[in-house]
UniProtKB/TrEMBL annotation:
This is RNA-binding transcriptional accessory protein. Residues 638-707 form the S1 motif domain. Residues 710-736 are annotated as: Disordered. Residues 128-155 form a coiled coil. InterPro entries: HHH_9 (IPR041692), NA-bd_OB-fold (IPR012340), Ribos_protein_bS1-like (IPR050437), RNaseH-like_sf (IPR012337), RuvA_2-like (IPR010994), S1_domain (IPR003029), S1_Tex (IPR044146), Tex-like_central_region (IPR055179). Pfam families: HHH_3 (PF12836), HHH_9 (PF17674), S1 (PF00575), Tex_central_region (PF22706), Tex_N (PF09371), Tex_YqgF (PF16921). Keywords: Coiled coil. Residues 710-730 have a biased composition (Basic and acidic residues). The lineage of its organism: Bacteria, Pseudomonadati, Bacteroidota, Cytophagia, Cytophagales.
Length: 746
């Protein structure tokens, strides 16, 4: 079925844009390639829109497959009717489709099935008409010792079981009940009796209630985690009276007689035994999916910002993985990240070989012409920074802290073992810290994104959806920046459009055997890298020292001939065209329009010619924490300190202020105005100035603010201490904040 019209309406774009995108995707084109090099075909749909088309068409095709399976099942039962088939084909959601199929779905023997076997369905039909009858007399006619119907009550109970199943399988009623749960229902959590002390981190959810429709994702996931860990009991439902009233309206209860009394009993049974459990399961899945999507969105955006952090570039770097007892692991790296030297120094307690360590560092800085020193921000990080800054190095040597989250994961990984099979884990970790300073993107792609420390409940969300979203984010970042094919690792090449692990390895093997690539076209000699993969990948791969100057740009090889024509028309060379603003200003783009090349592509080409292979990331800036503030005990209320944003969540941002424990800037303290989304104000790796609000040393909690005068309104709000204010951002988030502050998500 053609779903382009539907998707076009949802995206508010033209049908032909969506259909063209679908055709490209079906032909094997990737999202980065389509959004960058097929703008004329798609009407310049951006990367997000192309990815949305990809995901939505898959959802709709999955829906089609399910419809086919359901139609086949009902036809095999001999129960298909034109009306039923029409309803199935017109169903727009999986939930609606399953509601229609429910009466025909093969099921285990139910109470209603047993009642039908006892011949009680005619009695149920009579009662369901709600007419005034002498039920006892009528029910007597259905007594049958052989079928184990020996009393009037047994007969009526069987009839009610059948009616309850009819009510449960009413597709229209189920949809209305689903909406009632979603719009009027509540999350209600309470502690399991006897587990109050064990479940103390969930204290704020011991007796908690809030509407399903407005519960934020982080609280939904927190309550579900508490339930999973067997600390909380969680109900997800509306008021029972509202649900019963909805059913009575749906089946038109409009009288009072003995039949109606039986129907009302069946309604209560249908709700409690069938509808409520079924709807609660569905709504749990719906709200979980929504919470997952929001948490994954937060994680993906944080990851994007981290991956696109400013690179130091190709400089000789010394990296130090700090430590006390076991010393500091020190490595020296060349401009391309190659390991030149490693050893351990012991500038701190208990060895305190400070003079020896200082001589070692100064000697290595001179020997390898070190231009920057990267120090991990973990244990002993600030002390090591102070030591290095105090040994009299040239001011031209940059000394900076680097977030080492995930470095230990990398050091124990197969990737690290493959690269440095004979080195200790801590040495590998130091190498990762140094390379992270030089090029965060190239190094972080080697680590499972879930281990980088920028997520929110990443272990609770749908792992498949999380992986897909994070893969999309990494692919977008890698292709947005571009990859130098002669220095890139296998891991980095894997994320290039059109490649993947096998072709990435083949490129590295070819490079090792034949030396550096001298042209993009040479990629076609790589085993298994055919025309299609080349088309998808070539524009994102750079060759800085290539024979063709265009090979270091994002101009696709399919447009080289066009650029050469531009140069020829101006009586110059491509190289001169790339170097001269005046020559490029003489190009009249309208002269190069064609059926396949429009203004968007021509403008992209012109921009690339002016800044070939430009790095879209920001320039690196040295950052320094406040001197003398190294530990929690050094913090005082009201202090203003420099910090770096390390993680963004739905309820605020975490900031590293150099005391080995991130502080929380709550949503309400991110700005002097109301903030709904923290990403409006901050980004991961952003340098900020914060004010210390509170310090709880025993629990290792730091409250921070980015307001101009954070204490001005705070007193008023605390004086009010109103129930409604607490409800808006409940104490229920404190367990999550505490968990994150303790490093659970880092």
């Amino acid at each position: 079925m053609n779903y382009s019209h539907k998707i076009a309406e949802e995206l508010q774009v033209k049908n032909q844009q969506v259909q063209a995108t679908i055709d490209l995707l079906d032909g094997g084109a990737t999202v980065p390639f389509i959004s960058r090099y097929r703008k004329e075909v798609t009407g310049s749909l951006d990367e997000v829109q192309v990815a949305t088309v990809r995901d939505r068409i898959q959802q709709l095709r999955d829906l089609d497959k399910r419809k086919e399976a359901i139609v086949k099942s009902i036809e095999e039962q001999g129960k298909m009717t034109p009306e039923l088939q029409k309803a199935i084909l017109e169903a727009e959601t999986m939930a609606r489709l399953e509601d229609i199929y429910l009466p025909y779905k093969p099921k285990r023997r139910t109470k209603a099935t047993i009642a039908r076997e006892k011949g009680l369905e005619p009695l149920a039909e009579i009662i369901f008409k709600q007419e005034s009858l002498e039920l006892e007399s009528l029910a007597t006619e259905y007594l049958n010792a052989e079928k184990e119907v020996t009393s009037v009550e047994e007969a009526l109970q069987g009839a009610r079981d059948i009616i309850a199943e009819w009510i449960n399988e009413d597709a229209g009623l189920r949809e209305k009940m689903r909406q009632l749960f979603l719009k009027e229902g509540f999350f209600r959590s309470r502690v399991i009796p006897g587990k109050e002390q064990e479940a103390i981190k969930y204290k704020d959810y011991f007796d908690w209630s809030e509407p399903i429709h407005s519960a934020p994702s982080h609280r939904v996931l927190a309550m579900r985690r508490g339930e999973k860990e067997l600390f909380l009991l969680l109900d997800v439902c509306p008021e029972e009276a509202d649900a019963i009233a909805l059913i009575e309206r749906q089946i038109l209860i409009n009288a009072e007689n003995t039949s109606v009394s039986q129907v009302k009993l069946a309604i209560k049974d249908a709700y409690k035994r069938l509808l409520k459990p079924s709807m609660e399961t569905e709504v749990r899945l719906i709200t979980k999916k929504k919470a997952d999507e929001e948490a994954i969105k937060v994680f993906a955006e944080n990851l994007r910002q981290l991956l696109l952090g400013a690179p130091l570039g190709e400089k000789a770097v010394m990296a130090i993985d700090p430590g006390f007892r076991t010393g500091c692991k020190l490595v020296c790296l060349g401009p391309q990240g190659q390991l030149l030297h490693y050893e351990a120094i012991f500038p701190h307690e208990p060895q305190r070989r400070t003079t020896e360590a200082a001589m070692t560092v100064r000697g290595l800085v001179e020997k390898f012409d070190i231009q920057a020193i990267a120090i991990g921000n973990g244990t002993a990080g600030r002390e090591t920074e102070a030591f290095v800054k105090g040994i009299g190095l040239s001011k031209s040597v940059i000394v900076t802290m680097v977030n080492e989250s995930g470095a230990s994961i990398y050091s124990a990984s197969e990737v690290a073992r493959e690269e440095f099979p004979d080195l200790d884990l801590t040495v590998r970790g130091a190498v990762s810290i140094g390379r992270r300073l030089m090029d965060p993107l190239a190094e972080l792609v080697k680590i499972d994104p879930k281990s980088i420390g920028v997520g929110q409940y990443q272990h609770d969300v749908d792992q498949s959806a999380l992986k897909n979203a994070l893969d999309d984010t990494v692919i977008s970042a890698v292709n947005g920046v571009g990859v130098e094919v002669n220095t890139a690792s296998k891991q980095l090449l894997t994320y290039v459009s059109g490649l993947g692990p096998v072709l990435a390895q083949n490129i590295v093997d070819y490079r090792n055997q034949h030396g550096p690539f001298t042209s993009r076209s040479q990629l076609l000699q790589v085993p298994r890298l055919g025309e299609k993969a080349y088309e998808q990948a070539a524009g994102f791969l750079r060759i800085r020292q290539g024979m063709n100057p265009l090979d270091r740009s994002a101009v696709h090889p399919e447009r080289y001939e066009l650029v050469e024509r531009m140069a020829k028309d101006l009586g110059t060379t491509v190289s001169e065209l790339m170097q001269s603003d005046s020559l490029r200003n003489r190009i009249n783009l309208k002269n190069y329009l064609s059926d396949s090349v429009g203004l968007p592509t021509l403008q992209d080409i012109l921009e690339e010619l002016s800044k070939p292979g430009r790095d879209p990331r920001e320039q690196f800036e040295v950052f320094q924490f406040q001197e003398g503030v190294n530990h929690l005990e050094d913090l005082k209320r009201g202090m203003k300190l420099p910090g770096i944003v390390t993680n963004i969540t739905a309820f605020g941002a975490f900031v590293d202020i150099g005391v080995h424990q991130d502080g929380l800037v709550h949503l309400s303290h991110l700005a002097d105005r109301f903030v709904k989304d923290p990403n409006e104000i901050v980004q991961v790796n952003q340098k900020v100035i914060v004010t210390v609000l509170d310090v709880d040393i025993p629990r290792k909690r730091i409250g921070l603010s980015m307001k101009a005068d954070p204490f001005a309104e705070r007193g008023k709000k605390m004086d009010k201490n109103s129930k409604s204010e607490r409800k808006e951002e409940p104490q229920g988030t404190m367990a999550e904040k505490l968990a994150m502050l303790k490093g659970k998500f880092r």
